[in-house]
């Protein structure tokens, strides 16, 4: 196998649907350890196979994961994708709902990692190089456990045992406790971090690093400190054969562990916010900093800690309107549009009444949802008559939100379409196709206006699995929960805001300083904005245990079906419940059992273990 093929693994090509995993086999297959580990080349190929179980985080259509389509930041038009059944609480332990993409695949990856670890020192690699490759597999095994845990809670820890969950003679087993799982994975990540390099050359972008191991630990410990996994009352009755599977009491010390783990990533001194060095300059341009953040590849992106390297086709085409050869079926919710601050730093919407239909507007924000006026778009540089809702917002708004009536400009002006129409029978709206955003908004994140996109050329994307801004927000969240007076809360939260071009938090909300509840709300709000469409919100609302409020009930957008134009007098500009997402109405159902995924019924039957609550 040529080296270029190995490089392509890191672009996600081995993980394409329908492709078989290279070298996937049972231990007693004809391809023995002696065959695989006899040569450096086949040893490397086997390691690449272990990587191939990485989740397809950079997909954007609701098929490979539900992180966007089943969160309150997005809604997806495409029919037949399993995220829609989750939104309607129509899933069950016997339905497929991603189990073969997550549960089955992660345990296969764990098994392959373990097998590699058991044999890599038999290869002709030097002792030093073998130790690094061993640590890569060790990291991946821990990373796959982390992915299982954020979905299922306590899972099965296999250690160095090569278990095949399809073996009909497997026998009874019980899940390990949550704390056992956390302790095991943290120990594995610590051990792998000691051996992993700080970085790799461009040929190997996407391989595990010391920072990747530390960031995984930091996020896992944050999740472990949050309400879902820190003494939640609903799980106290989930008892396995050996006792409670979940913590039965709240432990404030877990916040301190989470803070320390995230501070350790900061203290590496290796990462910084894109644009951070220029933030104190009088001519600092937050628009340029945000462009560079979203569109700079791993080696030059100071903020990216761990990435998935691959084609940008799935993400960019699903974000781009029909008329520019996109699919455009992933829409931003009105709630996300509302969340971005005004240019004065205040959040315009403080809540909703009438089941989310009517926003409660902060009068100090200078936000208006009435009328149209002329406005110059700060990125596209065009003057247009547009809804006042979209005017005078912070820079992240314009780097993330694309609304109906804007022009599409790419290739530095090489291609321009004057008017994108998300209304019924418009050039990118509903009609004969389901390739339209259900809310009348698409996302601009990771869309580079300097590149001219075509259906066969959407570029390459370094997808941020972990990035530094999240680490800063993780750290301040954890600090606020056990030491709300800590000076680092303002220091690091303000770094994120200043890079975005908005004032420091204490200037806008002085009463929040030292006020744990108010600061908690502001930190969560910043996460919603800063990390949107990076697959965090799905897990944030669940681990905070607020999904019953935030992701339950109607999803709102513009009135795309009720109008045939978007003139200022059109009914298009009315908050309206999404007519359909994935074939169902845009009124979601979230019940307490939905905080965690159900274990597949076939496995529960085979091993007779304790199912998750409500399933």
TrEMBL record:
Tagged with keyword Nucleus: no
Gene3D superfamilies listed in its UniProt record: 1.25.40.390
Transmembrane segments annotated in the record for this chain: none
Main location: membrane
Cellular compartment(s): Cell outer membrane
Domain SusD-like N-terminal: from-to ranges: 21-222
Keywords per UniProt: Cell outer membrane, Membrane, Signal
One Pfam family it belongs to: SusD-like_3
Membrane among keywords: yes
Domain RagB/SusD as annotated: residue spans: 313-615
PROSITE patterns per record: PROKAR_LIPOPROTEIN (PS51257)
Family of the protein in this entry: Belongs to the SusD family.
UniProt protein name: Membrane protein
Lineage: Bacteria, Pseudomonadati, Bacteroidota, Sphingobacteriia, Sphingobacteriales
